[in-house]
Automatic annotation (TrEMBL):
<dbReference type="Pfam" id="PF20400">
    <property type="entry name" value="BAR_4"/>
</dbReference>
<feature type="compositionally biased region" description="Low complexity">
    <location>
        <begin position="426"/>
        <end position="447"/>
    </location>
</feature>
<dbReference type="InterPro" id="IPR046868">
    <property type="entry name" value="BAR_4"/>
</dbReference>
<dbReference type="InterPro" id="IPR011993">
    <property type="entry name" value="PH-like_dom_sf"/>
</dbReference>
<feature type="compositionally biased region" description="Acidic residues">
    <location>
        <begin position="20"/>
        <end position="30"/>
    </location>
</feature>
<dbReference type="InterPro" id="IPR027267">
    <property type="entry name" value="AH/BAR_dom_sf"/>
</dbReference>
<protein>
    <recommendedName>
        <fullName>PH domain-containing protein</fullName>
    </recommendedName>
</protein>
<dbReference type="Pfam" id="PF20399">
    <property type="entry name" value="PH_20"/>
</dbReference>
<dbReference type="InterPro" id="IPR046869">
    <property type="entry name" value="SLM1/RGC1-like_PH"/>
</dbReference>
<keyword id="KW-0597">Phosphoprotein</keyword>
<feature type="compositionally biased region" description="Low complexity">
    <location>
        <begin position="482"/>
        <end position="495"/>
    </location>
</feature>
<feature type="compositionally biased region" description="Gly residues">
    <location>
        <begin position="468"/>
        <end position="481"/>
    </location>
</feature>
<feature type="compositionally biased region" description="Polar residues">
    <location>
        <begin position="1"/>
        <end position="19"/>
    </location>
</feature>
<feature type="region of interest" description="Disordered">
    <location>
        <begin position="1"/>
        <end position="30"/>
    </location>
</feature>
<feature type="domain" description="PH">
    <location>
        <begin position="296"/>
        <end position="404"/>
    </location>
</feature>
<feature type="region of interest" description="Disordered">
    <location>
        <begin position="404"/>
        <end position="512"/>
    </location>
</feature>
<dbReference type="InterPro" id="IPR001849">
    <property type="entry name" value="PH_domain"/>
</dbReference>
């Protein structure tokens, strides 16, 4: 019977690790493969966890944005102040704010809806993937990982195969169970079992390794699907926000520039100024006591006043009022400047001189200052000159009728400007010196009384002074001023030619 070598029927394996002579049996460590796969699964699990956190934080952000837009909405939620100034129909400012409110509320709601979709639809995708990776890790640990652990527990007595040198040292005296032959056969038995277990574990690891490619492809597809839904959710929200802002801008752009103004004009037509209506004028305005008799002058017009220093005459506007004032104004213009009188004489406190040609005098205090200043003012003499002798008589008559008194003093006259004036003045002087001037002595006192007594003059005195209503010239009743030799019938005292006709106002004057 031939003896066959046991090595010819034993299983073999290839070594993956370097071995040295001290290793009893070279080993293949499958636990490293299991550890590597386990680390890879952990990496995918952590990556999936990052995506979960990203989606959760985005969901919280969308929810916070919804609250922030509610704060934005509160800025325009109150009714417009003075809102009655705006058209309440669509197409105006009020309609624009209604559109802003509705769209801002829509943006806030869209953020809430996006947060709800992320939490309810997108986040569960990554949560399920996370659980799949965890289950895959458990499967690896309980399957191929457990077999690799068992393979690492090899027979502890493989080193007995190297006890052959002991046989030599003992000279062949060994116990039966320590016979190197038996020990070698036992090693082959255990080695065969170990190899079978390792090959089985190797097949399991190859199966896991091959399935890992498919599992990773599945993981990547799930991540892609989750992020695609994430993008669609946020993209829809961004599109809604853009659409709502465009709607706000579009509503504002469609508002015509004159829409609000036309509505404003229509609502306030009874208050606003009608551009077609004529402008107001002072002549068409009435106010209380506008035509009261105290406001109507007794006589008004331009007179010349002789200056104190240069002795020149300057033209001003004068008026005698029912209040018995003689007011001096620079002009008769009531509009360009406030008509404040330059001088005001209270005529009952004044004295008026007699008329000499166009000239006469009024003496009194200026009452325009009023108060203490008016009382302490010095009495002044105003030398006035009318445009014509007739005008001078009219002014003299009106002033004399309200003045406090009169005198026979005549104003100083300048050198005669013509031979006729010189002859008239010479004739007046010769007549005044004639004995026949005062024939009928009763006429002269009557004239003096009529010329200066004002409102106290009697009818006889007026007739004697030449103010008869029938136009008799002064002196026809005995005063002697109508004599042609005196020359006053033609020049200074020639009022008899016009009678008492001072009712017709001269050019530039008006009497009431």
């Amino acid at each position: 019977m031939s003896v066959h070598s046991p090595q010819s029927t034993l299983p073999t394996r290839s070594t993956t690790n370097n071995s040295n002579e001290d290793d009893a049996i070279p080993d293949e460590d499958s636990s490293e493969v299991t550890k590597l796969f386990n680390e890879r699964l952990q990496a995918y699990k952590h990556a999936c966890g990052y995506l979960e956190d990203y989606v959760q934080q985005t969901e919280k952000m969308q929810h916070a944005h919804g609250k922030e837009y509610e704060k934005v909405l509160k800025t325009v939620s109150h009714p417009l102040k003075e809102g009655h100034h705006f058209e309440q129909n669509l197409g105006g400012i009020a309609g624009m704010f209604d559109n802003i409110r509705s769209n801002t509320q829509g943006i806030s709601n869209s953020h809430y809806e996006t947060a709800k979709t992320l939490k309810g639809s997108v986040l569960p995708i990554f949560e399920r993937l996370h659980n799949e990776i965890k289950n895959k890790t458990k499967e690896l640990t309980k399957g191929a990982g457990k077999g690799a652990k068992a393979c690492r527990q090899g027979p502890s007595d493989f080193a007995e195969a190297h006890r052959a040198p002991r046989f030599d040292s003992t000279g062949g005296h060994l116990a039966g169970k320590e016979d190197p032959y038996i020990l070698q056969r036992q090693v082959y038995h255990r080695l065969n079992k170990q190899v079978i277990e390792e090959n089985s574990n190797r097949d399991d690891l190859l199966s896991v390794q091959n399935s890992f490619a498919q599992f990773e492809a599945h993981v990547v597809q799930i991540i892609q699907n989750g992020l695609n839904q994430f993008n669609q959710c946020l993209g829809h929200q961004a599109e809604q926000t853009r659409f709502m802002y465009n709607d706000i801008v579009g509503t504002t752009q469609r508002m015509t520039p004159d829409f609000e103004w036309n509505g404003f004009i229509k609502r306030n037509n009874n208050v606003l100024i009608d551009p077609s209506a004529p402008k107001r004028s002072v002549e068409n305005i009435a106010f209380p006591n506008q035509d009261h008799r105290s406001t109507q002058p007794l006589i008004a017009g331009s007179l010349e006043k002789k200056g104190k220093l240069l002795k020149k005459y300057e033209t001003s506007f004068y008026v005698v009022t029912p209040a018995r004032f003689l007011h001096e104004f620079k002009t008769d213009d009531d509009f360009s400047k406030d008509p404040t009188p330059e001088n005001s004489l209270y005529l009952p406190d004044c004295m008026i001189g007699s008329v000499s040609g166009n000239d006469f005098t009024v003496k009194g205090k200026d009452a325009s200052k009023g108060g203490i200043g008016g009382k302490l003012a010095m009495s002044k003499e105003f030398a006035l000159r009318a445009h014509t002798p007739q005008d001078a008589m009219k002014w003299h008559q009106v002033i004399a009728s309200v003045a406090g008194g009169s005198n026979d003093e005549k104003p100083e006259t300048s050198a005669p400007s013509s031979p006729a004036m010189a002859r008239n003045e010479a004739g007046y002087a010769s007549s005044a010196g004639s004995p026949s001037t005062y024939s009928g002595s009763t006429a002269a006192p009557a004239y003096e009384q009529g010329a200066g007594a004002g409102s106290h003059m009697t009818t006889a005195g007026k007739e004697a002074a030449g103010y008869g209503s029938h136009g008799a010239g002064p002196g026809t009743q005995g005063a002697g001023f109508g004599h042609t030799d005196a020359g006053l019938g033609q020049s200074s005292a020639g009022v008899g030619q016009q009678g008492s006709g001072y009712h017709g106002a001269p050019l530039g004057d008006k009497t009431m």
